[in-house]
Amino acid sequence: DIQMTQSPSSLSATIGDRVTITCRASQGMSNYLAWYQQKPGKVPKLLIYAASTLQSGVPSRFSGSGSGTDFTLTISSLQPEDVATYYCQKYNSAPLTFGGGTKVEIK
Amino acid sequence: EVQLLESGGGLVQPGGSLRLSCAASGFTFSSYAMSWVRQAPGKGLEWVSVISGSGGSTYYADSVKGRFTISRDNSMNTLFLQMNSLRAEDTAVYYCAKSYSGTSRAPFDSWGQGTLVTVSS
What we know:
The complex is a heterodimer. Chain A is mostly beta strands. Chain A has no helices and 10 strands. Chain A has a 6-stranded mixed β-sheet with strand order 2-10-9-4-5-6, with no helix packed on it. A 4-stranded antiparallel β-sheet of chain A has the order 1-3-8-7, with no helix packed on it. The termini of chain A are far apart. By secondary structure, chain B is mostly beta strands. Chains A and B meet through strand 4, strand 5 and strand 9 of A and strand 5 and strand 10 of B.
């Protein structure tokens, strides 16, 4: 099975900073990659699918890139409401594995 | 508006069974694959199982294979998870999630609020 490894596991950044989270797959998986945001005490929310397609209603400061084994989620200008844990997920085939998560905090 | 409402969680002893339900509304239920995803207290997301829109295809995480069974009743717009031989490590909030399409090869665009399952003596 393909394993999904996210890094870093946590980060602290200043408002307005550019934030980058990476997700690495143990095998190639084309672009069947999604990113989710889970705010404290809330339900996960789909941000990006097909590695780089922004889900409707998601702010344009979020973007995704990558294909094959290496993927990136970027927040171009960190806002207070972006405090959350972010997860990548593969969906090319079962198991539909999630990465371990990246907790984003404000410095 | 898509709505997913889980029920059936609770406290169960190790080795016991529990059946979760997820009542869906706001979309054509039979057209979309559905999954169960769990989150242990303070931990990350763990995918548990997926079922295609027709119910003809099912897949499971290795951690639950042989113990959990996913099913759906498209006439009742309801998703189920039968959980047997429960272990302490199954303790988690269980979410039902709607896939973006009818097959399992799709991300989850809607989530329920979750139901807590606690396995303890």
